[in-house]
Structures are given as structure tokens and as C-alpha cells.
Amino acid sequence: MNRISAHQLGLAGGVCTLIGIGMARFAYTPLIPALVEAGWFSPHDAAYLGAINLLGYLIGAATAHRATLIFGVRAVLGACLAITVISFYACALDAGVYWYGFWRLACGITGAMLVVVGAPAALSRVSIAERAGTSARVFTGIGLGVMASGTLVPWLADIGVAATWIALALVATALSAWAWFAVLRDLPPLPATDSRNGASTRLPWLALWLVIGAYGLDAIGFVPHTLFWVDYIARELGQGLGTGSGYWVVFGVGAMCGPIVAGMLAARVNFRPALAIALTIKTAAVSLPLISSHYLSLGLSSFLVGLLVPATVTLTSGSVASLSTPERQQQLWGWATLAFALAQAASAYGMSWGYEQFGSYRPLFVIAVIALAAAAASAVGGAVRRVP
């Protein structure tokens, strides 16, 4: 077997995040108006189908590590890639809400598993010096998905819902085939650890929990921008849907840059200090709409939060990798992903209820800023904590 390079591992991990999150989750949101206009679903049903995908993500995050213990990493990645791709083909059929619900739930589960298993599969098999660059490649998939959701998917939706899903499925088929046959089916074993020094048992738990706590709080802080940003600009600020969608494209441009910037920052200052810096900047970026509704303020907020959504994932994953041994990395990253998923689900529903009570999105941005400030403080604690 030829040696698989860090570059190849990073690209294969990037395919996992692109298909599992970038396409399976983010591509659905801009399709909701097209699904309703085509008469496939009512607005209520379309929203329900988005929520059930989030439920699937929770299930996948909670069960991914156990699945690999039973079936192995390669089998889980291969099966999840296949099921996610099949779900795209299945969603091209107007077969009713239960059919769609099943496949949206299924790709939510497999999408989470691709992130929980795919990222550590790449990062735990490269040297410490190669982790920053590999991590950037792995999580570029999320940025690509956000970018495509704001540009290509709406354009495809004008052609038709079925055509959009078929196009996504064909792209996902080609990428999955490359990732499997070029890298994942011959995934090398984990590097051996030196059991003589107890490295596998003496983990810096306080630093790990501070990093995981920061990641969970970040999930609360990013909800207003990822769920309500376009509607806030379009209706509450009265600038119209076209303008709101334009700011979402800016958000997507930022998301494309996020993993690359995160990798460069981590290479310079290491992952944990970089995470603290990123969350501090993110706190300021989310507070910008509270300060001003000028187009420069909204544009900068769009770009920075878009950049820092995948950047935070990249830096958290790298921080967990730097604090754990290779054989524990997947489990600990799974815990972090589960914390994020739980906080994201609770805050999404809670903020939706809050909007009904307040009649304004502005209080939600205040909540997000408070959560992000706490996340930054937790990340600082994790960064300054000395580890063995």
C-alpha cells in the first residue's frame, strides 16, 4: 500500500465535512422556499424537515464513537458517505413528508458521524507539525457548503427542486468515490503511543473541559447569524430580501476563508490560544449589529462571523487533538460535537420562542454576545492551563 500523505488525509476529511454538513445541512435551507413554491410541502412541513435533520445530528453525534467500536472507522465512514449520497437522490422524489422526513433524519445522523469520525481519522494520523494545515483542509468543506448554499443552490433551485438534488447527488457521488478509493478504504492504523509513561490515561481534563465548554457556548452565540440573519436584515431592518441574501453571500465568502485563516493562526500561535483569539473576535463581530445597522457594520459582521463559524470548528478540533492521545481523540471530539449539537438545538428553539415574545431579534444578539464572551473566557482558561 502506498503511504497516504497528510494532504490526502486532509482532503478526504474535507469531503466528509462537505458532504456531511456543508451539503446535507446547509444546502437544504435555501431550498425551503422552492419546496414550498413547488407545492411539495407546506411552510410548516418544510420547517419540520429542517428540525428533524437537527435531531438526526444529535443522534449521530451521540452514537458515532460507539459505532466505530462495533464496526470500525473505515466501515462507518464508508456507510455514512453512501447513506448521505443516497439521501440526496431520495430527496429528488416528491414522495411526501414521511419519505423526506426519513431521509432528512438519516442524513442528519450520518452527517454528524462523518464529522465526528472523519476529522479525527485525518488529524490523529498526521504529525503535530502537519495538524494545522490538515485541519484547515478538513473543515474547508463546511465553508464550501455555506458558500454554495448562498450562491449555487438558489440558482439551481430556479431550475427545479429535483434537478437541484440530482446535481448535489452527482457531485457527492464523485467526491465520495474519490475519498473512499483514494484514501479511506486504505486508512492507515493509528500511530502507536508509549504506554510506559501513561500517556493514554493522564489527560489534562480541566483544559479539555474548558475547550469543550467554550465550543458549547459558541453554539449559542452563532445561532442568530446562522438562523435569523437574513430575516433580521430583510424585515426588521426593512432592507428587503435581496439585500439580506446579499449579506448571506458575504457570510459564505467569510466561511470559505475561515479554515485557511484558522490553520495559519494555529500554525503561528498553536490551537488553544488561536481558539481564544477567534472567540474574542467573534464576540465583537456578533455585537456589531447592536451598535450600528450601517452597511459597513453589517457587512463586516457577516464576513467575520461567517469566517469564524468554520474557524471555530477547526480550532476546537485541533485543540482537542493537541490535548488528547490518538486513540482518545475521536471520543473526545465526539463529546465536543455532542455538546455543540445540544447547545445549538436548545438555543435555536429557545431563541425562536424568544423572538415570539420580544417581537425583535435584537435581544437574541445580546444573548449571543453574552454566550460568546463566556466562551472566550473559557477558551482563555483552556489556553493558559498548563498541561503535562
Topology:
Layout: H1 6-23, H2 32-37, H3 43-71, H4 73-90, H5 97-123, H6 131-150, H7 152-159, H8 161-182, H9 205-221, H10 223-236, H11 241-269, H12 271-291, H13 295-323, H14 326-358, H15 362-384
Please estimate the helix content: over 70%
Broad CATH class of the largest domain: Mainly Alpha
Oligomer: single chain
The low-confidence runs, each spanning 5 or more residues with pLDDT under 50, are 194-200
Number of strands: 0
InterPro entries: MFS_4, MFS_trans_sf
Protein name: Major facilitator family transporter
Keywords: Membrane, Transmembrane, Transmembrane helix
Transmembrane segments: 9-26, 46-64, 71-90, 102-123, 135-157, 163-184, 205-227, 247-267, 274-292, 298-320, 332-352, 364-384
Overall description:
With 388 residues, this protein is an all-alpha fold. It has two domains: 189 residues, Up-down Bundle (Growth Hormone, Chain: A); 185 residues, MFS general substrate transporter like domains (Growth Hormone, Chain: A, Up-down Bundle), CATH 1.20.1250. Helix content is 81%, strand content 0%. Helix 1 packs antiparallel against helix 5, helix 5 packs antiparallel against helix 6 and helix 12 packs antiparallel against helix 13. The longest helix has 33 residues. It starts with 5 loop residues before the first helix and ends with a helix. 52% of the residues are buried. About 2% of the residues have low confidence.
